[in-house]
Each structure stands twice: as C-alpha cells, then as structure tokens.
Amino acid sequence: MSDGEPAVVLVEREIQVRRLRELLADCLQGRGGVAALSGPVAGGKTELLHVLGEHAAAAGAVVLHATARCSESGVELGVMGQIFRHQHFSPADRERALRPYEPGPVIAPCDADLLTHSPIPAQVSQVHWQLLRALAERTPVVVIVDDLHFADAASLDTLTYVGRLLRTTRLLLVVAERDTASGTSTTELSWRTSLVRQPHVTRLRVRPLTPAGTRELLTELIGPYLAGASWHRLSGGNPLLLRALAEDHHDRTAGLPPPAGPGLVEPSVGEEYGRAVDACVRRAGEQHRDTARALAVLDASGSARHLARLTGRPHHLVERALAVLDGCGVLDEGRYRHPVARAAVLAGMPAAERALLHRDAARLLHAAGEPASTVAVHLAAARHSEEPWAFPVALEAAREALRRDDTSFAEACLDVAEAAAGDEDRRVTVTVLRSLVDYRTDPDTACRRLRPLIAALREGRLSGCQIVTLLGRLLWTGGSDEIALALGRLERSMDALDARVTAEYQAVRQGLYASHPALLPRPAARPRPPRRSLVRGAEGAPPRMSGVLNRLLRSGPGPDAVRSAELALQTTALDDGSFPAVHQALSVLVYADRADLAAPWCDRLVGEAAARDVPTWQALFAALRAEVAMRQGDVLLAEGCARQALGLLSLRGWGALIGSPLATLELAAAATGRAEAGGPPVAALPEQLFQTRFGVQYLHARGRWRLSVNLLHGALDDLTRCGRLMREWDIDLPAFVPWRGDAVTALLRLGRTEEARRLAVEQLAMVPVTQPRARGMALHTAASVADSRRRATLLRESADLLDAAGDRLELARVLADLSEVHTRAGQSGRARMVARQALDIAEDQGLAPLSRRLAAREAPPARPERGGGSGRVGVLSSSEAQVASLAVAGLSNREIAEKLFITVSTVEQHLTHTYRKLRVKGRSDLPLSLLAAVDGGPERQAPAEGVRQAPASERVGGRP
C-alpha cells in the first residue's frame, strides 16, 4: 500500500498512526518493539491495527494476525495457534509449534517473573520464540493481536516471553486491549506489568471522539451537513455507534431529496444503532455484558440503584463495569443513552434468561419496599404470578397505570393479576377493571367483557358486593335487561348487605334514577334518604353528583345544585372512577340552565380527554358541549360538536347515551331547515334508548324537527310521548326538556286551541323566575295563546330573559314573533327594527327557515337615490347599514355612537367598511336609499353590534 490516505476513515487518530509507522520503520531497520493500543470497546483500535497491517504489508513485512476470543480464553495456546497457522511457516515448523507438548521443565510459580503461572512447559515459549526469530531473520515480521484481554494464559506467557527478547530483531509486536481500568484478572495484569518497564514498549491510548471529531467523521459518513449535538450525545464519541447512526440516517432518508440548504441534521435512532450497542456490550466481556443486561432490566422500572444486588457482585466491581460501558459510549453516567439501546440489549438476551432476571428483579424490589408500579413492571415482563403478593401488587399497579393513562401497562398488570387470582372475588375485580380499560376506547367491548359476570349473575354466583360493583359498570355499558336483573337480585338481598355496600348501592340507584328511570320505581315509592346523603359522601368529600342530578331533574335546581356541581368539578381529578361524577356534575350545570358555567368546563374536559387519548370521555363531553351550544343558540357549534362526538364511538359503543348527540342534531336540523338530521336510522337505535332520559331528549328533538317540516301529527306523537314518559318518571322539568312549547305549536297548527292553551299555562306555572332561559321560553309559549293585547308584553319579557340567558336561537324566534305583532299593530318601523335583529342572528347561524320568514318583511320601499353605490347597498351587514343610515341622516360619529350604544371607533370601522363595499369616497357620497332601511327614519334604528347594548326590551322600542 502507498503512503497515501488509508482506505479506512480515521479521525483524531493521527498521533497513533504516526507512532505506529515510526515503530514499523524501526522494525524494518532491525530494531524490534512492542506497541500496546488501549481504549474503550469498539473505540477504533481494530481500525488502527488494520491500517498498520496494510502499511506493513505494503512495506514488505510479513503480517501475522490473530484475534483473541472470549469463548476461546480457556483454550491453551489458542492465540499462538492462529499465528503459527500462517502460510509463512513451513509444515514442519507449524507441526513443531502446535504439536501437543511433552512433559518438561515448568516455569516455577514466582511472582517476580510477573507471569500467569500457566502450566505450559518453558520450552514451548522458547520454541515459539525461535520460530518467530528465524522468520524475522529472513524478512521483517509484524505480529498483530486484537482483543488481547480475551487471550488464554499460555499465549500471554509466550507473547510476554517474545516481547522481552525482540528488541534487536526485525520483529514488531502490536496488541490491542480494552482500557486498563477494566482489567481485573491476573492474566490481564501479568501482561501489562511484565512489559511496562521495557524501554522498547510503547503504550498508545485511543480515546473517544470529541464533538469536533464527531462532526468531522459525520462529514465523511453523511455529507457536509451541520450535525446537531445529539449525534455525539447518542454515540459518546464511539466510531462504531456513530457509523450505525449514519446507517440509520441513510435508511430514513433513502429516496428523499437532499436538504435544500444548510441546517441541523439530527440522527434517526433505529435498528443499526441498537445492533451496534448490543455488539459493544457483547464485546465488553461476560462480566460487563451481564452488568449491562441487568441494568437494562432494572432501567425498565427506573431501579438502577439496585444493580449490585441484582447481579450479586461487589459494588466496586459493578461501578467498574459501568465505567467501562460509559467509556465505550453505551451508557452515559450509568444510564442508557437511548431507549433503543436498552431495548436492543434486552432483545439480545435469551428469553428464558431475560424472564428469570425480571423475576429476580421483582422479588428484589418487592423486598426493598418499592412501589407496586415499579415491582409490577418486572412481574409483567416475566409473566410471573407465582408470588403470594403478586395479585395485590399487580392490581394496584393496574389502577395506577390507568391514572397515568397507560392502558397497555394496565392490561399487562391485569394479565398478571388474573393469573394470580385464586378465587371468584378476585376474578370479578379483575374483570371489572378490564372493562374500565376497554370503556376508554370502546364501550361495546367493555360490555362484552362483562358477559362472564352477567352469566354468573344469572346463575346466582355473585355476592351482593360483586353485584353492586357490576351494576356500577352496567350503568354506563349495559342493557336494560342486565340492569333490571342486577337490581332484582339486590332488592331481594338488601338485608344481607353491610353498611358500606348499602351506601354504594344507594349511590348507584341515584345514578339510575337520573339516567334509566324506567327501570326503577318512582323515588316516592321508597323512603328517600336524608338530603345530605344525596349531596355529600364522607365529611368534606366532593358532592355525590348522582343525588344532586337526580333531585334536580325531579324538583328543579335548588340553591345548592350549581354550587355542588362547581365544587365537584373543581375538586375532582378526572379518572376512570370519577368520570361518572364529573359527567353528572356537568349535566347539573346544563340542566340548571347555567350554560355560561358549563361551556368552559366542557371545553376544558373535552381537551383533557383528547390530550389523554380517551375517546369515550371525549365523545361524552363533546355531546354535552353540543347540548350547551344549542342552549346558547350557537347552532353551528352545536352541530359540529355533536358530529365530533358521534365520530368518536360506534353506534353500539354509544348504547342509550346516543340520544344526547342525536337530539342535538335533530334540533340543529330543525333550526337550519335541513330535510334530515343526518343521524342513524331510527331502526338502528338501541331499544333501551327510550327507557332513559336520553330517549326523552331525542323524542323532543325529533318532534321539533317533524314540526319544522310540517309533519304535525308525527311531531305531536313524539312530543306527547316525551311528556308522558317524563311525567311517569317524575322528571318533568322544562329546564331539562321543554316539550310543551313545541306541543303547543303543533296543537295550534292543528286547530286544537284549548289543548294548546292548557299546556302553555301549565308550562308557565312550572318555571320559576330564577330560571331565565326556561322562563323566557315559557313566556314565548304563553304569548302564542295569549290575546293580542298581552302578546307583545309577554314577548318583550321573553326577549329580555332569553337575551340575559344568552340563548340566541330562542331569542331570534321570539323577536320574529314580536316583529309580526308590531306589524299587525301598524308599527312598521318598530317591526322592521325587531326583524332586523332576528335576521342578524338567523343569517349568522344559518337558520334558513327563519331567515326566509324575516326576509319577506325586509324589502324596503323605493326611495330617491343620491350618490353612487346605490345598487350595492345589499352587500352591507345590518350593523353597517344602521350606522350608514344615521350618517346619511346627518348625525356625527359621536352622536351615532351614543344612539347605538357603541364606541366612536366602532362607528369609524363600520363607515370605513361601508365606503369600501359601496366604492364611494366618503360620507357625502352615501346613497339616500340607506334612509329606507327602517320605516320612519334613522331615529327608529335598532342598535348595532358593539361593546355595550341596552336590554332587548329597550332595543325593540320599550314597553307601550
């Protein structure tokens, strides 16, 4: 080979290469020597030996190469055998060197000789020396031994013998070994100490690459890109690991265009890196390999501090092994540099050995008092359940994993718990927990998971406590038949239940009263528990929301209902156990007509469920958010949330709870005038839907939709059925489902006035003044059956209440009716102003039927025109038209602001938009047709959008 650059890319190895070439030159001149390369495992020593061998061969020297192997460290003269099998030795010389030795003088075991005390006779080393010296007399000889730390004792003695005598020959001995700090055996120490004092011995240290060296090598490996610091952090400066990272990088970027310009290129950790790490661990030797594997096992649970105890080795030896692994780039301060590295070391272990190590780790950590979640990592990895403490540990770890949203680990822990369960009680507990895991993503699967327990329930094999536990799950996932069966069993065994189980059963009953009222007798049929027990559990605990919701649906929101719901939401962390209470607390806010409080809580909980990747929670919270949006009159948002909710779960997964989002879609379809709501066909709906409160919500919504498409008899059937069920179940609350209002509309269209009047009066009497939205809707209904003299008063009062409650949809419907009342009274200007307000809402929310109804009254009479842009007046929003009409009438910006209760800045913005839309230069060019926007002139204009508005009754002209 020429003196040019070697084929192997070497970085930061210039000193070592230069010194080795100098030693080779001395050898060629008859001055023998010894060179010992030391450094971390896979640190580049082999590449240096390769470069030296090529250079020596090119210079005419004979290169004799051997590599010591860990598996052959017990084979006597194994390394020397590789050397003497070289072709430069004659068959006779080869036979002489390798034939079985005959008994003869043995080197006496004397520490002064610094040898290994090998039992090989002294003449064997002498013969090897003679053969090497004879070859060196004919031609220069370079003996290269890699991984000397694995060499057998007899070969080390021969190499030591040769190393002492070669100074005046053309013989160069070059060896590579791991760091001195890692050597612990007498064999390794004898080699180093016996030659260290010789003047012809050169020691060369090979260190890990520096960050600059890493970047230089990467330029050769991946190109002239700016490499990030992660390359050095992941490789520790180990060239083998760095090349593996480069291979992973090439695999990831294969077929992709190169980067457009300079920029940081970060590594992609993949299979090649993992294989390289495992190779480093294996090459480090058995003791270091075992330490690395034990560390990989313990790192799974973050328990590396127990490493010495798990390996059974003294602490100082473990620390030394960690230092070696740190030095070769596998570890960084005793920790794996990347999860792929740890996984590769684990994968490199035989499965049985890995399982035993995890089992031993579990026993060790349990004895040390480590947390259950830490111990269970190893129980699950080993699939080991034979310890007497395995069941409680695995069960606790599964619950903790669910709190962390780690469902995969929870399932693994439940596998261990199931295998360790020795009785029916434990198996029931495991099955219920498994259903909780399934419920997060697919309630239908959760329901199927409970089938063995339902079978046991039918056969009478479950205890009262187990039935209560099962009933709590069936409340959210089961069918009516299963719930009824469980209730029947419990009712017959009430006397046998202890106080704790009885309390849990009463809590479940309250939830059933609120969600599945058809399955229970009316609460009055049983003694009602004290009021406090329905609201709170233990002293100081968050409110028991099943009781609060149940009482609200039957008696209306009391003074404590909203406060209790807010307290529950503020103090309850969302998890599998608390989800029902959190959902019920939100429902309390919704049905107490506190959409203003419910909306931000819904948004927060939908976001949390999405972030934690729990689709079922997200779907049910989104369905409630849709209800809230509909109660606020935000039809587009309500429809979007309902469709989002339906897209997260299957139809079977929803069960009876599907009534909530479907009801919202029906209400949205009725408001927007669509021919269908877009939900599943009625035949596909679960039968038990109409035995739940979600069923009456759906019946009311479908009745309103049928009313919107003029299916009057079908609408009335739905609405009267809804009302009948609500009365039977004692949940006839207008704030929950205002079915009477739509029934009155249907009856009036059918000419059944007296029935309509009776329902309207009944509804108004049921709603207190403390419920502004429900009261406003009841007043609207009452106005529809009132005489003309009272109708306007009722509608104005209704508008004020609905405006205060924030329900824009119902407000728009009231304003549209009020506009008609003004029209009949000959108050066309006032009618037009009120209609304009309703039309703004209708156009904003896409309420097509209401928009068409109102637009008919918006056509202004012809007026003389002034200025340009008259043909484009229709492009203005209602707010812009109102401001512009006042400007045409001669009012200043400040006067317009005071009249419309907005700021001067808002007036200026509206006028700027108006000039641009009408393509006019200024106020003097505005067309006179703007004066016709409201009959009677600008002094009758309704207020525009702004920062401050008068009450709705004042905005529509006040009471007469």
Describe this structure in words.
Helix 30 packs antiparallel against helix 31 (615-631) and helix 32 (635-648) packs antiparallel against helix 34. A hairpin with a 2-residue loop joins strand 8 (331-332) and strand 9. The strands form three sheets. A five-stranded parallel sheet has the order 2-3-4-1-5, sandwiched between helices. Strands 6-7 form a two-stranded parallel ribbon. It has a two-stranded antiparallel ribbon with strand order 8-9. It is built from 47 helices and nine strands. Mean pLDDT is 85; it is low at 1-7, 103-117, 181-187, 523-542, 859-868, 933-951 and 953-960. The protein is mainly alpha-helical and 960 residues long.
> What's the total number of strands?
9
Q: Indicate the low-confidence ranges by residue numbers.
A: 1-7, 103-117, 181-187, 523-542, 859-868, 933-951, 953-960
- Class per helix and strand makeup: mainly alpha
Tell me the number of helical segments per DSSP (H or I, 4 or more residues long): 47
Average pLDDT number = 85
Shape: elongated
Strand percentage, roughly? under 5%
Tell me the Rg in angstroms: 43 Å
Distance between the termini: 112 Å
The main sheet orders its strands as 2-3-4-1-5
- Largest beta-sheet details: 5 strands, parallel
Helix content: 55-70%
What are the main properties of this structure?
single chain, 960 residues, mainly alpha, five-stranded parallel beta sheet, two-stranded parallel sheet, 9 strands
Summarize the structure.
The protein is mainly alpha-helical and 960 residues long. The protein contains 47 helices and nine strands.
